[in-house]
Design goal:
Elements: E1 5-6, E2 10-15, E3 18-23, E4 28-33, H1 34-42, H2 49-60, H3 64-81, E5 84-85
Antiparallel strand pairs: 1-5, 2-3, 3-4
Length: 92
């Protein structure tokens, strides 16, 4: 199973309904929704993707199939942005 892992040295700040994520390595700031930020928080190297899907479904009160689509899209975008490592099996 894939276990996504966020890169080191990310800074987080909640601003209204969004979460600013500072990537020190790239010296860039990303504006995430709180739900996307929750997925990034869960990408800590201890949760398999299916576990993240289940938690996301519970947090958002949506069915698991919808959560799977959303979480996979969010993880693919994080991978594209370099916010998570693909060394633990996450694919684009």
């Amino acid at each position: 199973m894939a276990i996504p892992l966020a890169i080191a040295n990310l800074g987080f700040k909640v601003v209204d309904e969004n979460v600013l994520v500072y990537d020190a390595k790239a010296d860039s700031i990303h504006v995430l929704s709180r739900t996307a930020a929750r997925v990034l928080q869960l990408a800590d190297g201890t949760h398999e993707v299916e576990s993240i899907v289940d938690l996301f479904a519970q947090d958002c009160s949506i069915d698991v199939e919808r959560a799977r689509v959303d979480v996979n899209a969010i993880l693919a975008e994080f991978l594209r942005l370099g916010l998570i490592s693909n060394s633990r099996g996450v694919t684009e």
